[in-house]
């Protein structure tokens, strides 16, 4: 087996890299972290990362990109403590929630920041509110919490949490908050924030606000922003 110490190419502001840092922290995996300046991505990193994006995990001859794929790789290599259920059905449910995060929640999170027209912004906010209510009802609310699928943290929790740590950005720039009736999500958010691995990776709102200002005024130049707006 390849026993090399993993190297994670990351950026503290990036929620997708945050997902991977959480998985490694939950597993207690020692890892070298290399911070990439997303405003001046070096040529050597573009040669290393096929998409020129973080996160990228390198372990010996293995080179893995895309946060959902990296986290499944981490689960396969370091199986304890498990971040996936044992049975196929719940494992599939975790994967469906990770896909839901990227296809519905994350995309509208960014659109709400990027879109400048008030009428479009209002429609996105309404859609994001309904998405959050669906998540509240079918996620932690359906399984009795405190985590997404019940009593144990899974990769589904790690897919969503980085964006909940950044929800204050939406409140600051767009006046958008977690709906008051999303009580299961509110409890889940508190439970996640209290985990030692999550606390070890946490940044406060003061860190995020200046780094998301260019999203809020739509002057940011990033692959994520371009991809989200192309699909808007």
UniProtKB/TrEMBL annotation:
GO terms for cellular component: cytoplasm. Residues 87-216 form the GST C-terminal domain. It comes from the Bacteria. Pfam families: GST_C_2 (PF13410), GST_N_3 (PF13417). SUPFAM superfamilies: GST C-terminal domain-like, Thioredoxin-like. Keywords: Transferase. The keyword GTP-binding does not apply. Residues 4-82 form the GST N-terminal domain. One of its GO terms (molecular function) is transferase activity. This is Glutathione S-transferase. It comes from Inmirania thermothiophila.
């Amino acid at each position: 087996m390849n026993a090399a110490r993993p190297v994670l190419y990351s950026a503290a502001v990036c929620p997708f890299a945050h997902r991977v840092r959480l998985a490694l922290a939950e597993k207690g995996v020692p890892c070298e972290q290399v911070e990439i300046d997303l405003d001046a991505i070096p040529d050597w990193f573009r040669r290393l990362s096929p998409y020129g994006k973080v996160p990228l995990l390198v372990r010996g001859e293995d080179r893995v990109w895309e946060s959902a794929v990296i986290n499944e790789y981490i689960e396969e290599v370091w199986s304890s403590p498990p971040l996936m259920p044992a049975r196929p059905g719940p494992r599939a449910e975790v994967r469906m929630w990770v896909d839901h995060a990227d296809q519905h929640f994350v995309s509208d999170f960014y659109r709400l920041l990027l879109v400048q027209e008030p009428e479009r912004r209002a429609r996105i906010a309404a859609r994001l509110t309904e998405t959050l209510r669906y998540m509240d009802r079918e996620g932690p609310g359906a399984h009795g919490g405190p985590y997404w699928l019940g009593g144990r943290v899974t990769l589904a929790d790690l897919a969503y949490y980085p964006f909940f740590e950044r929800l204050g950005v939406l409140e600051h720039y767009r006046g958008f908050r977690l709906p008051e009736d999303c009580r299961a999500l509110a409890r889940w958010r508190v439970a996640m924030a209290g985990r030692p691995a999550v606390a070890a990776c946490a940044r406060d709102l003061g860190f995020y606000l200046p780094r998301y200002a260019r999203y809020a005024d739509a002057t940011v130049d990033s692959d994520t922003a371009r991809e989200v707006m192309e699909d808007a």
